[in-house]
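Tutorial handout. Part one gives the primary structure; part two gives the three-dimensional structure as tokens.
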Amino acid sequence: MNRTLALIMLNLTMSTAAIYASDFQVQKRTINADSSGTLSHQVSAAETWKAERTAVILCDVWDYHHSINAVRRLEEMLPRMNGLLKEARVRGATIIHSPSDCMPTYEENPARLRAIRTPQLNLPKDIASWFSRVPAEESKRSGQYPIDQYDGGEDDDPDEHRQGAAKLDLLGRNPGMPWKTQSPEIEIDVERDFISDRGNEVWSILQDRKIEHVILLGVHTNMCVLGRPFGLRQMAAQRMDVVLVRDLTDCMYNPKRWPYVDHFTGSDLVVSYVERFVCPSITSDQLLSGQPFRFAGDKRTTRDVISVTENKPNEWRIHSLENNLSLASLGTMPTASLRCAIRFPIGTLDEPGILSVQEQVTGGWLNGKPLDIKSTEGREKEFQITKDLTFGNDDANLLVLQIDFSRVVSKLVTAPMIKTKLGSKSLSGNWEVRAGSDESARNIPLPAKFGMSPDVFYTLP
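Part two.
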């Protein structure tokens, strides 16, 4: 009897193990545009992914955040996020925890040491850098970045936000960057998991473990989830089969900004942008039982919004400098501000660089700091760009130029040119332009990599 019972228990254990070692069945969703430009959801046939060839990356699920409402929404998702990680782990998938800027906390953690000790061979170029846009975004001919995030996307009540910042200060946390660890609500298996926010380390883990598929979840979709060195753009650029878990993410969007929709619709618009230009998405119920996650505050009757008809106001608009910028496109005002984001790879500005512009450019700012005029000759002038004006660390920087057409005969602006010790580059693509030129145009409330749309990014040399 005991032997029979033992055999039964053994068979049950083996059956359970077989279930949990089963592969993943996923259905990817993308956005397609027909010949008329009409957008629609497209869902693929079910795909089978081997669990041992799949990795799950959890992006920036921090212990604290500067936005109170962002924290509240994350706290709602945490149990479902942790459940997905547990399910994926028990089936045999690789779990990578990526709470950016928090690595000092984990320097002795076995999961962190495991990531550090993974061999790094044949790393792709710029694998450790923030990724501003993929080729599909560069070549798009219709549509635009779906939300205005230049204010940082906080949708907090101002008084409550100030109180929250004061509490963070009392805790000894920087109110603008208060995170130090991943949320304690997320379990880390120190015997199996990895901890890393480094693109080179994450990529090495994927290669070392022969990963073919990546599932990415976390926050925030329009900033870190897309742009981090381990994020969606980087994975897509390296031809990894990557998907976003669209019901376990959130964006930084303030409904007081364009396109003036509720926060959840703003998140839908960002997801649809990802599905159209970067990678497909899936939902958590494809790995777990039950229904996809929904926020308690999302009372909408229409979800999964693809686009809205609200036109962007005439504040900042995309213009191309490839064929010169005409005053006529800016209305009647004789002055204008132009801006773009520029990444200077490490070493580019070991010696000061030069920004050559036309005479109608009366001022220049990098990350809100004024550029010094190096020389003026004829119809051109040169600004000096030095390393101390940049964010450093291979990051994106905000370049703003002020134009005064009333001072010159020519009513056209041609593309500026940047010269560094590593080469020259014409900034002849897209810029954002706004009529008028007041001080508020010279900077944005957060680093360019978080706030700027991918339409106006340049990388030097």
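Part three, for discussion. The domain at 317-459 is CATH 2.60.120.260 (Jelly Rolls). Residues 75 and 185 are 9 Å apart (CA to CA).
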